[in-house]
Amino acid sequence: MVHSIIEWSMRNRFMVLLLAIALFVWGVYAVKKNPIDAIPDLSENQVIVFTEWMGRSPQLIEDQVTYPLVTNLQGIPKIKYVRGSSMFGMSFIYVIFEDDVDVYWARERVMERISTISKTLPDGVAPQLGPDGTGVGHVLWYTLDAPNLDLGEQRAIQDWYVKFALQNVPGVSEIASFGGFQKQYQIAIDPNKLLYYKLSVPQVIAAVRSNNNEAGGRKFEMSDIGYIIKTSGYLKSIDEIGNIPVKNQNGTPIRVSDLGTVQMTGETRLGIFDQNGEGERVGGIVVMRYGENAAKVIEKVKLKMAEVAKGLPKGVKFDIVYDRGELIKESVDSIKNTLIEEMIVVSLIVIIFLFHWRSAVSIIIQIPITIAASFILLNAFGISSNIMSLTGIALAIGVIVDNGIIMSENAYKHLSERYAQWQADQKSSEIL
Q: What domains lie within the chain, and their CATH numbers?
């Protein structure tokens, strides 16, 4: 078969040249479409299920949340294994699928199973899926440089303005906020007063919850105009919470303020984020969606950040603390320069040692065509341009040249044998 291919190629040189040009053009197009990253994504094909049940111990989380979820998620098709982890107030389930399974198909199967498991979990426990990213999806970290704002105000800007804007960037899976204080109303109840008024904590919680809602009425018409009746009962201040009646005792209402203290404060924190030893900062982590081009996602996020910065309060600006785009640029530029230098050196060596321009050109021309064609295969198998893949291509240049030299040498050997045979035949004909 190889002999037939060589014979066909020799008889159709123009066609072979056109195919080589078409392959090279296709390869150049594949180079532009191939996603760029600094490091290869070797993480497993997984779906993360996390569950919050704040205030509970790890053992209770393990018994009532993690164990039921792990045992019920094991029956999903194409699963390799399921891992569970329990900690204070949190449960994490890692569902590992086969490598050839589509990640969004896997998320759908997990969500279907969770919808049936949720009924068996404790009240108020709602499992959620993690972002559709990977272990190397953290492509950008930023903080808010806001010297004139306290940490609570900075966290509010991050959670209610910056986060929503950056999540709309194509290719972004999640914006994970960190640092600062999440503002909340807290009621510090005095147990002695509860005992005095013969009340319980659930009664106080029920009173606050029932007085913090909105109800709708019916529609009525008057003078050919329709009116919709509604009542707005959402709590808006500390005084409103303190004035909520919990119980009526001998015609005197017992309010929340009679049982304890209402205050605006931050949620309890388990850690802080300090930047360069200069104090706490508030910021976010940009998580890239599975299979996206890291370089393009980072570029789009930066453009969106420039747009979002126009709406920030005076004196507030973004401070990028980690940017994988710089690492990607430096890594790819380094490998690119190595490829160019290696191609030039190899071409010069081939020209000097062969000292025959037609043979040298036939070998050298294989280098750019083969490299371009390799990117077609990278796109076909979903492999990005990173340090590992580009280094492999650089190492393969020597193999490409070796093959070309061997084929050229083999061709010259057969030509010399044919030429010697032709000379012998000529001499034999002259003697006769």
A: 2-38+328-422 (1.20.1640.10), 44-133 (3.30.70.1430), 184-266 (3.30.2090.10)
